[in-house]
Amino acid sequence: MNILAQLIISGVVVGMIYGVIAFGYQLTFATSKTLNFGQGEALMLGALVGLTTINFLIGQSLSSFAAYLLMLPVVLAFGLLQGAVVEFLGVRQAIRTKSEAGWIMATIALGIIFKNLAENIWGRDALRFPSPLPEAALTIGPMRIQPMEIAIVLGAIALMIAVEVFNRRSIYGKAVVATANDRDAAGLMGINTRLVITFSYALSSMAAAFAGVLVAPITLTGATMGAVLGLKAFAVAIIGGLSSGFGVVVGGLILGVSENLTGYYISTGYKDVPGLVLLLLVLTFKPSGLFGSAAIKKV
Amino acid sequence: MKRTLFAFAILASTALTSAAYAADTIKVGLSGPFTGGSSSMGVSMRDGVKLAVAEINKAGGVLGKQLQLVERDDEAKNEVGVQIAQELINKEQVVATLGFINTGVGQAAQRFYQEAEIPVLNNVATGSILTKQWPDAKANYVFRNAANDTIQSAMIADEAVNRQGFKKPAILADSTNYGQLGQKDLTEALAKMNLKPVATEKFNIGDTDMTAQVLKAKEAGADVILTYAIGPELAQIANAMAKLGWKVPMIGSWTLSMASFIDTAGPNGDGAMMPQTFIEAPTTPKRKEFIEAYRKAYGGDRMPSPVSAAQGYDSAYLLAAAITQAKSTDGKKIKDALENLQTKVEGVVTIYDKPFSAADHEAISPNIPVFGLVKGGRVVPAHPEDIAGDKAVRIKPKS
């Protein structure tokens, strides 16, 4: 077993999770220049709804793999709905009144409400999520990897490609891109930009909910699972650049791999430091992110 | 006039009955996390206490009065623990409080009992500091009947090095106070054996990937992993070891007996060893009786946390014996009685024969806990010979 290869592959797995959540940040930022700070909670809710669904399906004597596949559309639909609710309750008003900070407070508040809600419904214990794939690790060349970890990487890439293809090919997706480019002009062209923004929030939460059910089988599900992930993904979004879907993926990989390499070669006590140092460096020298295009705000 | 008199009579009679009711019972506080990550310990402790109190009340209560528990969920949060302490002391006017699972909550809440001169029987939390928070105070109102971290870390080091002959231990501990203080205690215990851990690794609560930590221990050539952390992260360690195809024994603090570790790690957790004051096995008639009564009252065939249940049960009997001896519910008199307990209390963990003194508030001595072993989803004795025959009940030596 090659140590470096093992560290990198484990970092890539964690990094892809960060990347998918950060991808969600990027989706809403592109259309509305706002973010859902409750993204970690969207992930947590998705995982818990997934847990209830999969346990119900397994109770119907389905295999855990079949139950997992059937559970996915439920969780994705729930994510879409949850995102739309966040936009409706927390963001719409702030955009209408052109409030600079209203949406920040509102999405944070909604995140806290969702967390309390989850604590009341699912309790405060960490719950085990049934794994759809065998848990024994596979040996691939110099590395050992769990089947679920491969599924995380593939699933994350598939989701991001699906959203990108939708945005570039379909007429609805073009409305999203147009709104992202210039909201006022898009509005004048007859695009319902308000609906597009709602839709981008729905997609964003869907990405988070999907990340939740991807990561749940290799960790535990519970009301607090989203807090750390949501925060790290935020750092990833800053590093990669909020205007670039490709950037957040690379940002996620950089953070995931650097955490593991620092943990091994320097000290596990300093695991989180390089990511944060990188965050500060990016904010100082290239505030739009490594892959972001500089935005000029006209006033 | 007639109506006012009537109203006055009603008022007076309700006041009288509630006063009479209050005088009939002795209120005892119970504080622990009944929800959240450490709830398996909190709930078992509470159930153990309730079982003992029900038995005591059935046998006629204490000083001719019934014991009444005032249960509060501290959610393992320091600030909630403090609020509860104030409520129990000032509003409920408890005569003593049993509980505390989390060292941090105990540390924050106990000072209020100390100031109010109301005894605390700490029955689960293990932080060494808890009974020594006020070294300069004239009196100390905090007692404990759980194996503290100094005892546990010494036992872990002794088991790994002396008994099993491992030479290259690696320490994996979480970044909380519990993990870091435990890691320090473990390092010191190893230093006394002229050993240095080959790796000392750290992780955060909620970390999803332990690859770096486990790889470092592996590459350092560790032949045993010593842990100080709580259930979910311990399970992540066991699972990461399985993923990397590396298996060395895990020996750690008593949290390796948490249901969240055993259930989440599944087969990967088999073989983990930890100090236990009580293992769910009918090794004495008293233990058999306790296990049967517990299962009858709460169902199931496995206690969520047998150690917490047994220590909770014993703490209620220790308090009852002290109140009986003090012939009073005055906090200071109960404290004096605890420090000089004349009756032997037969508990589940041990027979408490003068468990406390003015200088020593720890009922559990290093000779009492034995090692448990995770096997097939349960904790069984690691060395059955340690608790065989007349060694089943291990009693604190006379000082």
In short:
The complex is a heterodimer of chains A (299) and B (399). With 299 residues, chain A is mainly alpha-helical.
Percent of residues in helices of chain A comes to: over 70%
Strand order of the largest sheet of chain B: 2-1-3-4-5
Number of helices of chain B: 12
Structural class of chain A: mainly alpha
- How far the N terminus sits from the C terminus of chain A, by CA atoms, comes to 57 Å
Largest sheet of chain B: 5 strands, parallel
Helix share bin of chain B = 40-55%
The run of helices and strands of chain A is HHHHEEEHHHHEHHH
- Alpha-beta classification of chain B: alpha/beta
The order of strands across the largest sheet of chain A is 1-4
Task: Describe the main β-sheet of chain A briefly.
Answer: 2 strands, antiparallel
Explain how this protein is built.
The complex is a heterodimer of chains A (299) and B (399). In chain A, strand 2 and strand 3 form a beta hairpin. In chain A, strands 1-4 form a two-stranded antiparallel ribbon. Chain A has a two-stranded antiparallel ribbon with strand order 2-3. Chain A has helices spanning 3-32, 39-59, 64-96, 102-122, 147-169, 171-181, 183-188, 193-215, 225-240, 245-265, 273-285; strands at residues 127-128, 138-140, 143-145, 220-221. Chain A has a domain at 25-225. Chain A has 299 residues and is mainly alpha-helical. With 399 residues, chain B is α/β, with parallel strands linked by helices. Chain B folds into two domains: 24-147 and 282-364, Response regulator (Rossmann fold, 3-Layer(aba) Sandwich); 150-276 and 386-391, 3-Layer(aba) Sandwich (Rossmann fold), CATH 3.40.50.2300. Helices cover 44% and strands 16% of the residues of chain B. Chain B has helices spanning 2-24, 39-58, 78-91, 103-116, 149-163, 177-191, 211-219, 231-243, 259-265, 285-298, 306-326, 331-339, and strands at 25-32, 66-73, 96-99, 120-122, 142-144, 169-174, 199-203, 224-228, 250-252, 273-276, 345-346, 351-352, 370-375, 378-381. In chain B, the strands form four sheets. In chain B, strands 2-1-3-4-5 form a five-stranded parallel β-sheet, with helices on both faces. Chain B has a four-stranded parallel β-sheet with strand order 7-6-8-9, with helices on both faces. A three-stranded antiparallel β-sheet of chain B has the order 10-13-14. Chain B is globular and about 65 Å long. Classes of the chains: A mainly alpha (299), B alpha/beta (399). The interface between A and B is large, with 40 and 31 residues.
